[in-house]
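User: Can you model how FE2/S2 (inorganic) cluster sits in this protein?
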Amino acid sequence: MTDLGLSPDDVPLGALVPVVVDGEAFVVAHHAGGWCMFADRCSHAPCAFSTNGEVVDGSVLVCNCHGAEFDLTTGDVLELPAEDPIEIIDVAPVDGSLRRTS
Ligand code: FES
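Assistant: Here's the modeled complex, given as structure tokens:
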């Protein structure tokens, strides 16, 4: 399990926090169902969620570049113009640190 170098308090409910893992840019999100992470790039166009995204309605990720919405529990698209889902990676607090668990 990869330690993301963040404590649970670093990613409060509704937050999107950028992290780099193995040279790749990701975002750690805290939504109503817990924590998760995903690539810091919208599936619609090269917009970064860390600067253009927000968590709304509990577990919906909105990309404010063009308004696409994603379900943070599954990665599924909820609102166009994005057509492809995002890959959700499980994150959980372990021994006081947020760790990738999938
Ligand atoms: S880049 Fe995210 S909706 Fe277009």
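A couple of observations from the model: The first helix runs from residue 49 to 52. The mean pLDDT is 97.
User: Helpful, thanks.
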